[in-house]
């Protein structure tokens, strides 16, 4: 579909709690062309009665995609990947509406829809077997043996997300209020930190419960817990328990290593791990304890990089990741001509 | 103020999450007259920008009070006690507006405003030193040495309420989802119970997070945890931890016993304790361990009975409980004539 002298590209999209990000990779990112600077929308894509709102997503995506294409001088999108938070349970409308909308508006015929955990996985580890923990305010673990996807946790701040920023922050505020009340297990240092951050303890419920973004407020206290880990045993215990929860989730999704798969890798991605050593030191130990056969590696890239990677591999007909409707859903109704031509790299 | 042949009474009011209850005690409940059947409103009193809405409370209370008075043939209310959930942090408007409104509408000159924890305390133990844990969806411990009030927890389902119905239910659902994911610490029995109650686990976040009454939904699972305690070690552990949290809160507010106060008592009140032995057996043990000097006694009555008791003692000038603006606030601008007359029982 790309004529002589025309440039093609692929588009990676990450739809999350703070908005939509989109980035273009020219010529599939080959030949040193790489990806342009991502564009970012102002608002998160809405969720309606049918799930994630495909129309609202398109409203944001189409002008961003057109601008990215114009800036790069690109006329053809060979593939698009949209990774979306909430996709697994709320992705029906995206599967129903996005393929035709993207074909109509942007001429896109190859499309992958993915859970944000899948794009996080691919961004971190690529098409290798292993486990990735993606954590910020929430937490989910995704793993694959390349035959199927496994996920653990990601249940939100009331049902799980154990070890996440919201979990650590909540545990820290609980310990602060124990000190306030004179109950056991309290931390006077966390109480002092909390009162600097939020004012007198008696005002905390009135600040927290009316907010729509309660998990974010809880998570905002997590760095204070990390800051107290240089000597406060309660803070140290909270982070050690978070580390055990995170390693538990990784173990639940990680394929067995050794003779079957050779090496498996485990990686961490997301804002939580910017907390540094107070969390990472106990976490590395917990991962070594629970996943002795997995090599701990740095995440190669973020979920947006994972979306681009899936789009590139889809365009090149070399996407070997497991396809499951609620994790990684692929539409390739009209194979691109070059995928069938001689000289195309084998999948 | 009561002429010959006229009957007087006192009014007790309990304003909580499920509405307003009011009950009348004729002649202060003396001489076998006792209290009438309480009336109950349809809706909880609203909370507005100024705190608990005094106007909305009066809208509900005045017709109920007039009906109770008419049914009992009572012309004079010697005292009223209003116990209200949220009073401690949200009671400003009640203190500002209720005294004049009650004087105008019902001729009431003696008024006590109390935190619902205080009415729960008085309902359970009366004017004795000790500690009371009031628990249902939430949990608070209130104690007094008769010189001041102490409270512990009651911070709500995200900051505390440890050991409450919401806490137990949430821990049970967390264990269910651990089993679902293959994480450690899971309970297949709790997962099966949860799926009977709420459907497939994958649908739980979509059911829970959009609801305004998330703590109530969490608490609705607590009885299932109790039902699994006949053999499921995860359920047993959850209830044992809840018991330790509850006993911790009681210890934080209980005055020391022994030489200073003689016997102190500890009582439990509220819907949580209808859960029975699966919670009560470990809880009695935890209380014995943490409060060996406190005698565990049954609660004599509920918070509404506590409100009546405070009103009776206020009318009779024998209220000896600590008065603190945000716990128990007393207005006695116009002492009733009989309180000053000879023959009145000494305070």
Q: How would you describe what is shown here?
A:
The structure is a homodimer of 347-residue chains. Chain A has 347 residues and is α/β, with parallel strands linked by helices. Chain A has two domains: 7-126 and 301-340, ATPase, nucleotide binding domain (Nucleotidyltransferase, domain 5), CATH 3.30.420.40; 131-296, 2-Layer Sandwich (Nucleotidyltransferase, domain 5), CATH 3.30.420.40. Chain A has 13 helices and 13 strands. In chain A, strands 3-2-1-6-7-13 form a six-stranded mixed β-sheet, with helices on both faces. In chain A, strands 10-9-8-11-12 form a five-stranded mixed β-sheet, with helices on both faces. Chain A has a two-stranded antiparallel sheet with strand order 4-5. In chain A, a hairpin with a 3-residue loop joins β8 and β9 (139-144). In chain A, α4 (116-125) packs across α12 (303-315) and α5 crosses α6. The longest helix of chain A has 21 residues, at 233-253. Chains A and B meet through α2, β10, α5, α7 and α10 of A and α2, β10, α5, α7 and α10 of B. Chains A, B: It comes from Streptomyces flaveus. Chains A, B: Residues 32-52 are annotated as: Disordered. Chains A, B: This is ATPase BadF/BadG/BcrA/BcrD type domain-containing protein.
């Amino acid at each position: 579909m790309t004529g002589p002298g025309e440039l093609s590209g692929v588009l990676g999209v990450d739809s999350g709690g703070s908005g939509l990000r989109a980035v273009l990779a020219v010529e599939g990112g080959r030949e040193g062309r790489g990806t342009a600077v991502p564009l970012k929308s102002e608002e998160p894509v809405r969720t309606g009665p049918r799930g994630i709102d495909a129309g609202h997503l398109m409203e944001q995506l189409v002008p961003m995609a057109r601008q990215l294409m114009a800036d790069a001088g690109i006329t053809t999108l060979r593939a698009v990947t949209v990774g979306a938070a909430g996709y697994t349970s709320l992705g029906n409308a995206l599967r129903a509406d996005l393929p035709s909308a993207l074909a109509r508006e942007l001429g896109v015929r190859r499309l992958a829809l993915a859970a944000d955990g899948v794009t996080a996985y691919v961004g971190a580890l690529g098409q290798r077997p292993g486990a990735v923990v993606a954590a910020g305010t929430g937490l989910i673990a995704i793993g694959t043996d390349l035959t199927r996807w496994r996920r653990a946790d990601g249940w939100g701040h009331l049902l799980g997300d154990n070890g996440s920023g919201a979990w650590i922050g909540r545990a820290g505020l609980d310990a602060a209020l124990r000190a306030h009340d004179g109950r056991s297990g309290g931390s006077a240092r966390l109480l002092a930190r909390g009162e600097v951050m939020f004012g007198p303890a008696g005002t905390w419920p009135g600040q927290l419960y009316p907010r729509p973004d309660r998990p974010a407020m809880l998570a905002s206290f997590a760095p204070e817990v990390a800051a107290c880990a240089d000597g406060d045993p309660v803070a140290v215990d909270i982070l050690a328990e978070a580390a055990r929860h995170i390693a538990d989730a990784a173990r639940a999704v990680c394929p067995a290593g050794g003779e079957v798969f050779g090496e498996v890798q485990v990686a961490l991605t997301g804002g939580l791990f910017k907390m540094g050593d107070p969390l990472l030191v106990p976490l590395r130990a917990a991962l070594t304890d629970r996943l002795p056969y997995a090599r701990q590696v740095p995440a190669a890239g973020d979920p947006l990089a994972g979306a681009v990677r899936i789009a590139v591999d889809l365009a090149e007909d070399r996407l070997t990741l497991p396809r499951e409707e609620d994790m990684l859903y692929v539409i390739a109704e009209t194979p691109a001509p070059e995928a069938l031509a001689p000289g195309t790299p084998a999948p």
